[in-house]
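Internal QA ticket QA-208
Title: Verify multi-chain structure generation after dependency bump
Assignee: T.L.

Test input:
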Amino acid sequence: MLYREAGDYKTSYAKDQQTFPIAFDRYGYFLTIAFAVLVVPFVLNDYWTNAVVLPFLIYAIAALGLNILIGYCGQVSLGSGGFMAVGAYASYKLMTAFPDLNIVFVILLSGGITALVGILFGLPSLRIKGFYLAVATLAAQFFLVWLFNKVPWFYNYSASGQISAPERSLFGFAVTGANANPATSYLFCLGFVFVMAWAARNMTRGANGRKWMAIRDMDIAAEIIGVDPLKAKLTAFGVSSFYIGIAGALLFAVYLGAAEVGEAFGIEKSFLILFMVIIGGLGSIFGSFAGAAFMILMPVLLKNIMVGQMGWPTDLASHFQFVIVGGLIIIFLIVEPHGLAQLWRLAKEKLRLWPFPH
Amino acid sequence: MKLTKLAAIAVAATVAAGPVLADLVFPSLDYRTGPYAANGIPFADGYADYFALVNARDGGIGGVPAKVVACETGYNTEKGVECYESTKGQGALVYQPLSTGITYQLIPKATADGIPVHSMGYGRTSAANGKVFRNIFNYPANYWNGASIAVNHILAEEGGDVKGKTIALVYHNSAYGKEPIRTLEELSKKHGFKLSLLAVDHPGQEQKSQWLQIRREKPDYVLMWGWGVMNQVAIQEAANIRFPMDHFIGIWWSGSENDTLPAGDGANGYKALNMHNVGSDFPLYADLKTHVYDAGNAAGAGDQSGTVLYNRGMYAAMLAVEAAKTAQEMHGTANITPAMMRDGMENLVIDEAKMAALGMPNFGPSFSVSCENHGGPGLGVVQQWDAAAKSWSLITDFGPSDMEVIGALIAEDSAAFAAENNITEGCN
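Actual output:
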């Protein structure tokens, strides 16, 4: 009834190839963006920003990045936590070494540095694939964490090995540090999320994305039709690490404010982002958001229901949270192995025919 | 995006139903799950039980009931931030995160929000300089005091000369474990011992290689900065390589019953530092039994009573309650705000008469806090484990630490923090 394409005529190729070809989808998208920019900043408080919205936005960037690598290019990586650490430490070093450098450039440069590191650790992907590549990237994870723990230069020789983000502002508004307004840090991250998701969407449907997908589907066939595996794999590693590096920099500078590599960027983080990508849906931009939302919001929601509403002891609630989130992951993977994005696609297919499926 | 919104609405509905502002709120960022739960549970139980006692016996603090809001952090900094944000809106008076990592996160946030943080014997050591860290307190002792007290104990054992001896530090590879290194390096220069550093990665279950190295290098003493499961494993490994246990000294976070019991007889003679007395031989425990345990209000499983970390949780709660009382007297109102609580903490005086009146004679050192010194006197004791009796006993008096070395380091580190954050030192 509501969700249909009848009468929605396309008169040019550009219109036919747009991201949201169905008018209803398109308006929904515009409404969501308008809501996120015009309404959300005014209703946010500290709790909402720091417990729910910021981690969601930042992990969405990380999931987008890993999705480019795993979902689009088919290269398994378990090094995301380490690459986030590179982003975080790069931003820390840049912020402390160049106090006058604009925070936007700090974040972008951190992403660039991570991209270089990612390309370096992506080199083994030219020789090995599958599980063996996963193990090689796992080595990157452990190596990077060890490096940031071991070499005091990375944390400016502080006694505790902690890095903490100094205050930096954009247009006179504090973005990092404790005095940042919730709305400011939200809009700052939202800006990054919007631009990066938009770029990811357009990259993956362009020539590069098609090369990645060709490599993912069958690398030998791709090579025969003229895709350079070296270029395709390394660009995928580079772009993916750029995203993950930016997520790491934002996580440290805007969200956490202080971090310690073993605790904030350990192997758990790599698994968390991998779960987001798998649950959200491999090879889907929407899936990255859905997966991030699922893995970040679900525990907070469950905690608020069990402790806040039902008054359960915190340890019981915390154990149950593991059980429920774990159970949901298994159910999702059994019912829909292609993730939340596929569920969403199926729902849309059904809605297009509803209420007359035959 | 739809899913996000649905979840957001649901979260909004649950958050909106918060409690009313009537009680004095003391958030307890505790952890009863994960690899650090063995140490997190007794502390959280002691903290909650002391407030339950104050409410049941005295009718609250100055007539206003105290309310403990528990929030599970799992020793994880991101959850710690979530807990901080979710509890601060309820009128939280003071935060005691029981995690150095979370303390580092909260220092700028709590300072901006004007809420005091009490990191008792952990956290950022240089917070002892109250002229820079106005809202952060770490009395009665900090890590650097601990490092110095341990070295002093070794000096006493060796007759005052440790030249040429080797001291190994087995530490949790995090901000927590790295804190004492600077002080130990200074002390090794001063006293001429050789320092050997052995890092153990989170969570600390894998220590075979570190103890193999100790077995090979045969250091004269081993110090440990461990927490959670790392303690149990380290003590077991030390027993396995037959390291002389009375030459193995843990920080006060590595000396509880839950750490030594798993190693059985092998742990006999293991030493650890402490900042307060041990055991349940205090009049306070009679009150706890009448008002809390027998009333069925004990926190958790109720089986931690009298353990070292339970006592520490109570000690932390006691100091918070006394600071709240001081704040109430200073400002002449029973309903204090976090800012008043901060004043109360800065003017806190703990003496023997006060502790005896509370039913805790000789429980901790006498001290007073001032703006210049948020760190207290830095006194500590050494306790030793008796595996046959399954109990800790104090083997020294409250001894001083080398404030000459520590004071200089605190001034240096806090000055660096002040410069990074554009803080001008001062007491106003």
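Spot checks passed. Residues 47-283 of chain A form one domain.
Status: verified.
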